[in-house]
TrEMBL record:
Domain DUF58 positions: 205-375
Transmembrane spans: 39-56
Designated name of the protein: DUF58 domain-containing protein
UniProt KW Cell inner membrane keyword: no
Coiled-coil regions, chain positions: none
InterPro entries according to UniProt: DUF58 (IPR002881), vWFA_dom_sf (IPR036465)
């Protein structure tokens, strides 16, 4: 039974069988063809037997070896590399059809690869998968259908019978920002170079002057000593940044964060941005914390910067679940007041579609801004932006553009009105969320507001 389960018929066999049937029909009209057709039929049966022996002959090692290489965890919203290694252990060239059983969450039926391997040849097939939901993904088997040079039968080999992989928030994006921050190349991903307006008065060291340094910090005595020994070179006094400031990401898991963009919900964009921002804050010697909320308070991770704290943040964000119910800002204010006693930077990831929706929550936002530095981050409606950029050709499109302009204007009004109460804001497209959030954090830090 195991033999028959792995035996399949190739397309070439069906074509050959159809040709024989047509020849038998022709022999009925032209009897002199019958002996030739009978010989061809016998040869056809013998070739099937030879092909079956080539593919299924007993050997110590299987004719084909395959192995799938998957990361221990996948990064949500990113292209994750998957590699399938193949080796032909047959003594003849083999044509392979590889079908990888990827998790059902991807809803893809096109993961089919073809390869032609010489005897003892190895090959690696690489492709990418982009998950759009956090959670556990179950990979099935790697199915390899093998054809001999005759190409009449197929033998199926199955490898990697099931593997469970967790999809975490975008740790690949976090590593990218971490690497660029360490090499001062954050501008490559849209992060601006922020000129520091002031500095703390905690002296750190005397170092050579660099472009952009405050000329008021030039140390003339050190400069003169350096000029006497090594030529003219300006020296400045360097001061330490203020450190260990609490930075909290407040993530709204309510109904307004369910809207999709490029496969991901706004909530997942906020979770990915929170992961990157927390890592940057820890690199800047600040303390990072997380608070999630919807119709009730979810989880609170106090701001900290001890070893292993980034891993705790990653695990907390990975396990976030929600039913996208109506958000309760009163519970949010009560939780912040009870658990966050020190003045902190609060980055509130939420969404307001209309100015009336913002007005309902404004009293709680003003109370939060009274005790903390509050930064409200909400999203542009990218579909409306695309609609406004298209010319109107009929009355219906004029009506739709008018409504779109009204909603877009209200978004800008929300930014203006929150600013009147001293509340910092970011209105951003989902794809620019991470860069804009990091930019704003660095700007607030450069201005000495945290």
């Amino acid at each position: 039974m195991k033999l028959f389960r792995s035996l399949f018929v190739a397309t070439r066999l069906w074509f050959a069988l159809i040709a024989l049937i047509l020849l038998f029909v022709a022999a009925y009209a032209f009897p002199f063809l019958l002996p030739l057709v009978q010989v061809a039929f016998v040869v056809f049966i013998l070739l099937i037997g030879v092909d079956g022996w080539l593919l299924f002959r007993p050997t110590a090692r299987p004719g084909i070896f395959a192995r799938r290489e998957v990361p221990d965890r996948l990064s949500n919203g990113d292209e994750n590399p998957i590699t399938i290694y193949l080796e032909n252990q047959y003594p003849f060239p083999a044509h392979l059809e590889v079908i990888d059983e990827i998790p059902f969450q991807f809803q893809r039926r096109d993961v089919l690869f073809r390869a032609h391997l010489k005897p003892r040849e190895t090959r690696a097939i690489r492709y990418e998968l982009r998950p759009t939901r956090r959670g556990e993904y179950n990979f099935g088997a790697v199915n390899v259908f093998t054809l001999s040079p005759l190409g009449l039968l197929k033998r199926r080999y199955q490898f990697e019978q099931g593997k469970l992989v967790a999809v975490y928030p975008s740790y690949l994006q976090m590593r990218q920002y971490e690497l660029l921050a360490a090499t001062n190349r954050l501008n490559e991903v849209g992060v601006k170079r922020i000129r520091r307006i002031g500095h703390s008065m905690e002296f750190e060291q005397v170092r050579p002057y660099a472009t952009g340094d405050d000329v008021r910090t030039i140390n003339w005595k050190a400069t003169s000593r350096r000029s006497d020994s090594q030529g003219t070179a300006l020296m400045i006094n360097a001061y330490q940044d203020e450190r260990s400031q609490p930075v909290y990401c407040l993530i709204d898991k309510g109904r307004v964060m369910q809207s999709p963009f490029d496969g991901l919900t706004l909530l997942d964009y906020a979770i990915n941005a929170s992961l990157v921002l927390s890592n940057i804050a820890l690199m800047k010697q600040d303390r990072a914390g997380i608070l999630t909320f919807s119709n009730h308070i979810g989880q609170l991770l106090p701001a900290d910067r001890r070893t292993g704290h980034m891993l705790r943040i990653l695990e907390l964000l990975y396990r976030q679940k929600t039913r996208f119910l109506e958000t309760d800002y009163e519970s949010l204010y009560a939780s912040v007041r009870a658990n966050i006693r020190q003045r902190s930077l609060l980055l509130l990831f939420t969404n307001f579609e209309t100015i009336s929706a913002m007005h309902r929550q404004l009293p709680y936002l003003r109370r939060l801004a009274k005790d903390h530095l509050l930064l409200v981050i909400f999203f542009e409606n990218t579909e409306l932006s695309a609609l406004l950029n298209q010319p109107a050709t009929d009355t219906e499109q004029i009506y739709l553009k008018t409504i779109g302009e009204k909603f877009t204007f209200e978004k800008k009004q929300i930014v203006k009105e929150l600013g009147q109460y001293g509340i910092q804001t970011i209105l951003t497209a989902p794809q620019n969320l991470t860069a804009n959030t990091v930019n704003k954090y660095l700007e607030l830090k450069a201005r000495g507001m945290i």
